[in-house]
Amino acid sequence: MAKKAAAPVVKMVRITQVKSAIGYSVVHKATIRALGIKRLHQTVEHPDTPTLRGMLYKVNNLVVIEE
């Protein structure tokens, strides 16, 4: 019987909002919400994808990224 290949390990990224989005553009606020962050100092985890990296690039001054 052939061995099954192990599922690829998905790299996760931990994102914490450390600065308020008040005073920033609507696009920044929408990106924070799309990341699933609802309040300051909340931490969420997402799989590391190019789409996520683009979102983090947009709001990198508001969040802390842990890999």
Strand content: 15-25%
Order of H and E elements: EHEHE
What structural class should be given to the helix and strand makeup?
Answer: alpha+beta
Uncertain residue segments = none
- The whole-number mean of residue pLDDT values reads 93
Number of structural domains: 1
Main sheet: strand order: 2-1-3
What Rg, in angstroms, do the CA atoms define?
Answer: 15 Å
Share of residues in helices? 25-40%
What distance separates the N and C termini?
37 Å
CATH superfamily: Ribosomal protein L30/L7
Number of strands: 3
**CATH level-two architecture:** 2-Layer Sandwich
Taking the sheet with the most strands, its summary is: 3 strands, antiparallel
Count helical runs.
2
Characterize the overall form: elongated
Could you say what the CATH topology is called? Ribosomal Protein L30, Chain: A
What report would you give on this structure?
- It is a single chain.
- The longest helix has 9 residues.
- This protein has one domain: 2-Layer Sandwich (Ribosomal Protein L30, Chain: A).
- It has a 3-stranded antiparallel sheet, with no helix packed on it.
- It is of the alpha+beta class and 67 residues long.
- The protein has 2 helices and 3 strands.
